[in-house]
Amino acid sequence: MDAQERVYNALEGKPVDRPPVFPQLGDHAGILAGGTYDIMYKDPEFAAQAHLDAQKRYGYDVVTIQVEPSWPVAEACGSGVTYPPMKAPWITDYLVQAKDQIDKLKVPDFMACQSTRTLIEGTQILADRADVPVVAFMTGPLTMALQLMPYDKFVREMVKDKEFAHELVRRATEVGAAYGRALKEAGATIFMICEHDTQMMGPKHTGEYSIEYYPLMLDIFDYNMLHMCGKVTPHMERNVDAFKKLDRLNMINVGPEVDLNRMRELFEPEIGVAGNIDHIQLLPLGNPGEVAAACRACIERAGGPRATHFMLAPGCEITADTPPENIEAFVQSAKAAETVA
After folding, report:
1. How far apart are CA 148 and CA 75, in angstroms?
2. What is the rounded average pLDDT for all residues in the chain?
3. The pTM is what?
4. Using one digit for the tens of pLDDT, what is the confidence trace for 93-127?
5. CA pair distance 145, 124, nearest whole angstrom
6. How many Å apart are CA 216 and CA 70, to the nearest integer?
7. pLDDT band at 337, cuts 50/70/90?
8. What CATH code is carried by the domain that includes residue 315?
9. Distance in angstroms (rounded) separating the CA atoms of residues 155 and 146
């Protein structure tokens, strides 16, 4: 079974020969190729080739141009973003500072902004050259709203003026959907919606400010995944029925703070689960033996080497400083599972 069949079968809940490996590799690929953080948002050829080389070296089952689109998309909308050479970017000037500035937020021309143009063109290069599925990453509705208006101001509006807060999320969702369509046109076939900041809100906000807006983003690709960081078990438990009603949501990616068995109990057979290897302590700071043991245990919790509707994945992006030998152990643990299935 090749990576294409393995990945799509996993998303559809069909039999696989082993768990697909979805590493969420971003800036690590650029650093591995001798580049800097900022070049990954400036040079599509370098960024794409760095990811192609990393995929060939490690042998995982999907590839993407970048796992963190918040900054470039916010920049395309008009926010100020700093791209230092040896650190991840950050927003320096939020587009919406007050309620009367919301009309500044419109769907931008992504090709007119260097960073988003780089990611779109890089995705097209991957689609042309990679022999594994290409994933498009985009920030989720609530998290994107928090990239466009300072956190403290938006949270206050969630209490004082819910109508405004919803309008900002709605517009942020339209931006995210437009960017997703651009990446699909570039050749991506799987959409990963990254709702990082749900973990900072209460479980009810997941339903009100996130799930309500997902259909607009889930209507673009045939295959869709949702990534949620942190201690989100209460968010999942409260909103499980709403999640299951979403059309074309194939899989949810969770981190090490979440019980994988509990997630599969909640969501099967409608929705699969990807995870849940520790990307904060284990992958960057552990040794290959510890990584392999954790991956084997994760695969067993998911139902064994032939478990359906499952992908082996970290809880979030594998950091740039993660030792290559640990990523090799991460990937090889799934390949070893194939031989003992």
Report:
1. 9
2. 95
3. 0.96
4. 999 999 999 999 999 999 999 999 999 999 999 99
5. 27
6. 18
7. confident
8. 3.20.20.210
9. 9
**Which two tokens mark 175?**
């931006």
Helix, strand, coil shares, percent, the chain, to 5:
55, 10, 35
Residue 142: pLDDT over 90: yes
Burial (CB < 10 A; 0-12, 13-18, 19+), residue 175, is buried
The count of domains in the chain is 1
Cα–Cα nearest to 225, from 3, 1, 11, 75: 11
The residues with which 227 forms a beta bridge, in sequence order, are 194, 253
| 223 Rama sector, left if φ>0, alpha if ψ -120 to 50, beta otherwise | beta
Task: Read off the pLDDT of residues 171-187 as tens digits, 9 standing for 90 and up.
Answer: 999 999 999 999 999 99
User: Which pLDDT score is estimated for 340?
Assistant: 54
Q: How far apart are CA 164 and CA 92, in angstroms?
A: 23
Q: CA dihedral in degrees (106, 110, 114, 118; nearest 10)? A: 140
Question: Would you state the structure tokens that stand for residue 301, as one six-digit string?
Answer: 């919790």
The angle subtended at Cα 263 by Cα 258 and Cα 267, nearest 5°, is 155
Query: Is the pLDDT assigned to residue 341 strictly greater than 90?
Result: no
Q: How many residues does the chain have?
A: 341
Distances (CA, A) of 104 to 24, 162, 244: 32, 19, 35
Q: How many CA atoms lie within 13 A of 100 on its CB side?
A: 0
Cβ atoms of 158 and 169 closer than 8 Å: no
> Structural domain of residue 27, as residue ranges?
3-340
